[in-house]
Design goal:
Pfam families: Germane
Radius of gyration: 35 Å
Largest sheet: 6 strands, mixed
InterPro entries: GerMN (IPR019606)
Number of strands: 12
Number of helices: 8
Number of domains: 2
Structural class: alpha+beta
Protein name: GerMN domain-containing protein
Shape: rod-shaped
Strand content: 25-35%
Order of helices and strands: HEEHEEHHEEHHHEHEEEEE
Organism: Alkaliphilus serpentinus
Amino acid sequence: MINVKKNLFIILMLLVIILLLFIRCVDNRYINNNLQNSDIEIAPFPEGTLEEYVIYFANSNREHLVKEIRTIERMNESREEIIMRELMKGPIDSSLRATIPPRVRMYSITTADGITYVNFSKEFVTKFSGEEMQEATTIYSIVNSLTELSHVNKVNILVEGERLDVYNKLMSLKEAYSRNEKIIMGSFMSPAEVIKQYFNYIANKDYRRAYDLLYRPLDINIDYSMYYHLLRTSKGDVIDYTIRYYSVNQVNGTITMLVDYEEITEDETRYYKNGKFKLKNEFGEWKILLDEIEVGEIQE
């Protein structure tokens, strides 16, 4: 009797195990069929896209910009973020120099209507070191790198969310900057260098190049022939200029230079005091406002 009960118990246990296996098999088939018939897709491991970027750094003297080409795997970042991340890392080429000051943080970067807005921490100002030339290479390394993107036309740089009147000495951050191709090819001319070059062109009778250094508002109808005639009759006997002193004042992106200088002719030397020249940054170059030139007072 005991053996019969034992056998019945074993048979029941086997039936239970078989039933459980059958239920499990049915459940697995049901789940697999549902997955095959559903629209749910299991996302694969995310793959990046290899893209080429042009990043601009300063040359060894930090006078002009040189490009580095980098191949980067882009995941979920915007192209603007990648460019700024690489720029803030610094150059790979040991002959080039970083342009972003140390310990700078980038709070945000967005693009709207062709303008990219980059917001930096205060270290962008407080950790900056250098003169106007380095000021220019820092700003245009950002601008030129970002405007390599076809959808970016200008770049507006902010510090702690603010648009600064002056970054370091002369260059304003109030307005957005356009691309500057000339700083890639050569050094950025300061306002003082522009005035000196202007005087040199006049002394050498190279009036065409002197004219090209002028910013001519649309309402000032003076073409080159008129300008040439004016200088030919008034400055034709000048053989040299010497700048003795100058001061610089920056207001709303316009530079005013007060210049004391000597105008040298074959017969005499005329000394002018407080000659006033206003300059405007146009497409990365300082231009002398034609209608704002005041030659100053002749001193005895």
